[in-house]
Amino acid sequence: MTKLTDTAISRVPLGTWPTPLEPMPRLARALGLAADDLWIKRDDLTGLGGGGNKLRKLEWICGAALAEGATTLVTTGAAQSNHARLTAAAGARLGLDVVLVLAGDAGSSRSGNLALDGLFGARVVWAGKTSSEGLAVAAERVAQQLRRRGAAAALIPLGGSTAVGARGYVECGQELLAQEPALSTVVTALGSGGTMAGLVASLGPRRVLGVHCGAIADPGAAVANLVADLTGEAAAPERLRLRMDQVGSGYGALVSTVQDALAQTARCEGIALDPIYTGRAMAGLIAAVKDGDIRPGERVVLLHSGGLPGFFGHPPTLDWAQSRLDTVRVDG
Q: Is 1 a residue whose pLDDT tops 60?
């Protein structure tokens, strides 16, 4: 296991740190908070490959892969995976081949993250309709095939959520405390678990609120297991702060509360969120204010984990957003 005290792994620089911490006063007031209660941690502004939280993980994961002599990175995700996109960008930066094993079928989309995957030179293996477990099996099979052909293939799990990768969000928690020592709660999208786990290991379970996005079946257990791997101490899922109420009908769904969160954030602060991760995180934050889990006078930070390219690869969201466009007729 990789513990916080381990020093054998070297990270490779891929992002631009520290990312900004910015106030959101107009949205705070709209939600019934004081103007300086609500802030946003701009991990969408990490630089490489369109930005996003996965770069913090990939600095450590790629460092470990390079130390082991890897020439190829293999990873998995949904068709619009932000992690896959940033793995492709990291491979381009480091001179490594990248193979993405994605759920779905070829030709299902040509926009959003998929367009950037191609731009960065990644190759794609389509795994068809399958679960996260099925994706993991398919990726292992692809990695073994590559090794038989002579490639030194490093296999990166879904979302880069390993104890090694989660060290990036241990660092983010420390960065947040340096920027805002009075931090009460950081709200984060909970996908495969590594981002939340690193924050919990750094900040403790009471200061981290994870909003489940539907990417995995048991997010509490996934986060707790990663926290235990990071710290060397048992972690109980029931001690975590989780919201499970923003998934709607499933991972890829456009949820009405998320639509409202996207619109409020955009129109109050000029900041774009995506419908699967950051939009759900903001919807969970808004729900937490409404039910009293987050109260006025507390310093709250939304982790903006990136994902804007996925907005453009999600047709229901594009249709909804464009339907809100007012057309003004000017005569004469």
A: no
23-26: list long-range contacts, CB under 8 Å, 24+ apart. Answer: 24/265, 24/268, 24/269, 24/271, 24/302, 26/268, 26/269
Q: How far is the C-alpha of 40 from the C-alpha of 82, rounded, in Å?
A: 19
Helical packing angle, 54-67 and 163-179, nearest 10° = 140
- Joined together, the tokens standing for residue 253 give 């769904």
Q: Which residue has the tokens 């994706």?
A: 135
- If phi over 0 gives left and psi between -120 and 50 gives alpha, with beta otherwise, what is residue 273? beta
User: How many residues are there in the chain?
Assistant: 332
pLDDT tens-digit readout, 76-126: 999 999 999 999 999 999 999 999 999 999 987 889 999 999 999 999 999
212-260 per-position pLDDT tens digit: 999 999 999 999 999 999 999 999 999 999 999 999 999 999 999 999 9
- Strand ranges for the chain from DSSP E: 21-23, 38-42, 72-77, 97-102, 123-126, 153-156, 183-190, 208-212, 241-243, 299-304
C-alpha pair distances (Å), 39 with each of 131, 179, 184, 201, 289: 35, 11, 11, 21, 14
In Å, what is the CA distance from 223 to each residue of 77, 163, 244?
Answer: 18, 10, 14
SS3 103: coil
Q: How far apart are the first and last CA of the chain?
A: 72
Structural domains for the chain: 21-52+162-323 (3.40.50.1100), 54-160 (3.40.50.1100)
What is the per-residue pLDDT across 139-164, written as a single tens digit (0 to 9) for each? 999 999 999 999 999 999 999 999 99
Strands 183-190 and 38-42: unpaired
For residues 189 and 195, the answer to whether their CB atoms sit within 8 Å is: yes
Number of helical (H) and strand (E) elements in the chain, helices listed first: 12, 10
Global pTM value: 0.95
- Known catalytic residues are 81
DSSP state of 15: B
Q: Burial letters for 116-138: b for 16+ Cβ neighbours within 10 Å, e otherwise?
A: bbeebebebbebeebebeebbeb
Whether 262 and 271 have beta carbons less than 8 Å apart is answered as no
